[in-house]
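REQUEST FORM: STRUCTURE PREDICTION
Request ID: SP-0412
Submitted by: Lab K.M.
Chain count: 1
Length (residues): 120
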Amino acid sequence: MMTIGWGLLGTLWGKPVAMVYVRPSRYTYEFMEINNTFSITAFSKSGREINKMKIDGLTPKEVEKTVFFTEAELVLICKKTYFNDLVPDHIPEESKLTYYNSGDYHRVYYGEILNCYKND
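STATUS: Completed
RESULT:
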């Protein structure tokens, strides 16, 4: 589990996709590398407002070999279809200085959205 702030939703190769950015230094990177699916889970509050891992009463659920919390407002179940590493020479210099002064460049994972769950 990790909190991500960088991601995109769209259409690619005629399918709905989610793209998430994960640094190799993050623990989640290991899971993204070995698993074929991942979930994107959205709560009503930002991680800046609360520590989601310290909330009592979160209920993990596994669907399609992917875990998420049933209390989430929105869950996307994605099948990893492609990944690519950011190319440092293609990143604007000011962005490199701001986001990559340690040289820990993101890997972008593309996931076909297989399912969507919404709590009302």
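NOTES: The CA atoms of residues 70 and 92 lie 39 Å apart.
Reviewed by: T.R.
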